[in-house]
Amino acid sequence: MTEPSSTELPATASPQVEFISLSHLNPSTELNPVPSRGIDLAYFRRYVRWLEESGYDYTLLPYGSNSADSFVIASAVGQLTERLRPIVAVRPNTAFPLVAAQQLATLDQLTEGRAVVHIISGGSDAEQARQGDYLPKDRRYDRTSEFIDLLRRAWTETSPFSHSGEFYKFDDFGPGFAPYGKTIPISIGGQSDAAFEVGGAKADIFSFWGEPLADLRSEIDRVNGIAAAAGRADRPRIWVTFRPIIAQTDKLAWEKAHDYVAKIERTFKGGNYHKRYLGTATGPQNVGSQRALEFAAQSDVYDRALWTRTAAATGGAGASTALVGSPETVAAAILDYVDQGASLVSIRGYDTLADAIDYGRYIVPLVRQELAHRAATGQRGTLQADHPGALAPGFDLATSAGSR
Length: 404
Ligand SMILES: Cc1cc2nc3c(=O)[nH]c(=O)nc-3n(C[C@H](O)[C@H](O)[C@H](O)COP(=O)(O)O)c2cc1C
What we know:
Blueprint: E1 18-22, H1 41-53, E2 58-61, H2 70-80, E3 85-90, H3 97-110, E4 116-120, H4 125-129, H5 137-156, E5 161-164, E6 169-173, E7 186-189, H6 193-202, E8 205-209, H7 213-229, E9 237-242, E10 245-246, H8 250-269, H9 287-298, E11 301-302, E12 306-307, H10 309-313, E13 322-325, H11 327-339, E14 342-347, H12 352-362, H13 364-377, H14 383-386, H15 397-400
Parallel strand pairs: 1-2, 1-14, 2-3, 3-4, 4-7, 7-8, 8-9, 9-14, 10-13
Antiparallel strand pairs: 5-6, 11-12, 12-13
The site of flavin mononucleotide has 21 residues, from strand 8 and helix 9.
């Protein structure tokens, strides 16, 4: 790996980066859970409009058996914003592929080409069973593979076609309702072998939760290897997800991080925050969560700013790994991932709305400024060298966060 202090750009560096958030429907957070199952419309409107104002490019509408419906919310996001792209999380068990294709094409037309789909094969058998899906996980990925093929055909075939596959059968469909653009980007979430096989071969975007840089590097190589073996000319875009904790200085940010993790631990121990992705009493069944917990067991801090205590505190439930530091340090840490090839970066705070506003003010412009510098000069700027964070010689977590 090239030293982050060097001005030379690694060959793997992405020349562009786009930012993703996740749309919150009410002010409840892991820090301060508010008992509610509903949509606070004023809050939701404000949240998505701020995302657009803050320079975000996308927002994820997650899917869970007891969450709001991701399609309906995505449609609202489209109408509340002008530019923000809704990423609809879709579990293949919830809709016949041609129906999902129709819903996505409708959303794409309604948003003039902004729709993206994130396909969730399902990480927990118990959660899948809640909506009548009893396939084991590897078979769920086989179904995802056929589902993706049918989405693409439904959007592009110009004459009627029939299909008799392993999971789906139909006659004389089409041409279907077409998207606004030529097609709709398809993203895959999941870290099991089956997820890599399907995503590497077929997805436009492959997504990760925050991992140490060296681990992410080898995972990206794996995705690219599978894409090459599948005969693809292109490679999936890489999406990586963090929960940054920022303050004016690195020291203040680490103090805040320790306060946050104490609150998050209280929330999860109290059992009053719902654990959507957790599998069984013995731990999560999905590999993404298992990896998050393994990283946390090995070290609290990795690289410049990656902090795993929040992942441990939530039991690895969903995206939970933090980046901790001043805006400069966190922007530099994001650039470390961009250097590895990430071109989609999800940053969503534990203090959801306030953090979205802060990231828009203090992080997004720094990353964009560095990329503009790189585009103009072909070299790294000084941000990464000037803000080493936890890479600084003598960095010590205990002293950096005060006497804790
Ligand atoms: C960025 C990202 C977003 C995700 N969003 C969801 C979601 O909205 N709903 C859900 O059930 N799982 C979500 N997942 C979890 C996985 O996609 C899911 O557990 C996977 O299908 C199976 O896990 P595995 O392949 O890692 O074992 C997300 C994963 C990632 C990386």
